[in-house]
Amino acid sequence: MTKFDGKRCLITGAASGLGRSTALAVAAKGASVLLTDIDGSGLAQTAADVRDSGGVVHLAAPADVSDYDAVVALAAKAHAVVDRVDIVMNVAGIATWGAVDRLTHTQWRRTIDIDLMGPIHVIEKFLPRMIEAGNGGHLLNVSSAAGLLGLPWHAPYSAAKFGLRGVSEVLRFDLRRHGIGVSLAVPGAMATPMVDSVDIAGIDRTDASVQHAVGLFMRHAVTPEAAARSIVRGVERNRYLVYTSPDIRVGYWAQRYFPPSYNLAMRGLNWAMMRYVDKQAAAAAR
User: What's the CA gap between 125 and 139, in Å, rounded?
Assistant: First the structure.
């Protein structure tokens, strides 16, 4: 079991969505927090909310986790306040979708830099101090359903999230001798601000059919508060894979144990999405 009470917890992406909800959830469990996000104003609001709830905020410092030097500076600030953190929670991330012939190099690069290199930068600068302290600890990395399943148009996002899954799979064994647990969260649909900021290459987000699809997505999405509770429970129980919705567990089970159903589902999703693109192209040509 991993106890949050009395522990110091670093949370990235804490300005909104899952990061903010996770900060409030761990504070409610008795952890003190160190918070970061690229959004300084949202970060300040989360810090204020944690304090208003009776929690302790050691640090709320804006930083771009994709910038290694910024994470070096963040770690220096954090370790000037506390000698180490006990729990590292890599939550920050973005989503980029699109057919491979529409994606730009910038979209590929930005997604990898934030969603994969960002957590790696944090691991580089915070885990060695945790190991050195010899008091155990926990590392949580937030991957995605796209880190388990070959979802259509998710190539950049999956590249980063499968990569983070690989890092976590190695570290769950490498860090065991230090008494440090590792959890990998694999959220599915979540009703967070990311829904409105997903970068979809070559797609008009104002199109009625896109808005309809977003509406369907939101109907099946869990709240960030519910996802945060699942994550906290998973870390407490030292689970490796942490699901925030049952559909992803079923999809992963089908992929592993009944590949024909998984293949059929992925082909169907691809057909539906490409059909939409073809319709949009035909409408633009008229």
Answer: 13
Which structure tokens are listed for 108?
Answer: 């590929």
Q: Please write the tens of the pLDDT for every residue from 18-31.
A: 999 999 999 999 99
Strand partners, 200: 97
Is 157 one of the catalytic residues?
yes
What pTM, to 2 d.p., does this model score? 0.89
The length of the chain in residues reads 286
pLDDT of residue 25: 98
Using left for φ > 0, alpha for ψ between -120 and 50, and beta otherwise, residue 222 falls in beta
d(C-alpha 75, C-alpha 163), whole Å: 23
What does the pLDDT look like over 69-101, one tens digit per residue?
999 999 999 999 999 999 999 999 999 988 888
What is the maximum alpha-carbon separation in the chain? 67
Please give the Cα distance from 231 to 242 (Å, whole number). 6
Instruction: Kindly report each contact of residues 145-150 with a partner whose C-beta sits within 8 Å and lies 24 or more positions away, as own/partner.
Output: 145/186, 145/187, 145/188, 145/248, 145/251, 147/184, 147/186, 148/186, 148/248, 148/251, 148/252, 148/255, 149/248, 149/251, 149/252, 149/255, 149/262, 149/266, 150/266
Q: What is the Cα–Cα distance from 187 to 63, expressed in whole angstroms?
A: 24
Residue 198 has pLDDT above 70, yes or no: no
Set 157, 243, 252, 257: catalytic member: 157
3-state secondary structure of 181: strand
- The structure tokens listed for 114 are 């934030």
Domains in the chain, CATH or no CATH each: 8-285 (3.40.50.720)
Beta bridge partners of 57: 33
